[in-house]
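FIELD: query
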Amino acid sequence: MPDLLEVRINNEYHPDAAAMCRLLETCGMTLFHEKQGFSWVDDGAPIEIGDRLDFRSLPEVGEDTYRSVIAPCGEGTLDRNDRYYWEGCGPDNWAAQMTAFVDEDDASMWRIGFAGDSAVGYVAVMSDDDWGSTIAHIGVVPEHRGNGYIHDLLAAGTAAAQSRGITTMLSDVDVLNRPMIDAMRLGDHREDVRPWHVWVYRAGTDHFNT
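FIELD: result
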């Protein structure tokens, strides 16, 4: 038997998702995190990014700089999955794991937003055969939070996908992450396009504390 058992339930694939969640809870599994899906569909209109930030891609800044911006963004995150791995791996290892997923073709859609010489956050967009693309990750450096930069970052990521000719995007957000949910809605990412909603249940030993 594995030390840690994880089960994912998704409304899009499991029409009886609610019943399955109740069964897992009856079996002693606990909810690890829950995410709501948001879809963006290109309507041809240009995406307004604004001029508060200067955006540079991963190839422009280099992987080390990109990692240095990712690393602190896990602090205080409202995404339960990210918080678990950030705390378990440590900031630098977490950032290294995140950048390990970048594909050469997608690197131009991995952007850092700068206010002057100061990096305020990042957005990472990945192309996907089924979804078109996804906001794989996005975050604001702790000392720059509270200024609404998440909206600029989301717009920049969506515009990067649009510039690649990608017309659809599916991303999901922890239901406890209200600021990101608000940003998605204001950024024309809608939760009523697809029934995508994910529950992740776990049972067993936390492998970071064995």
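FIELD: remark
The mean pLDDT is 94.
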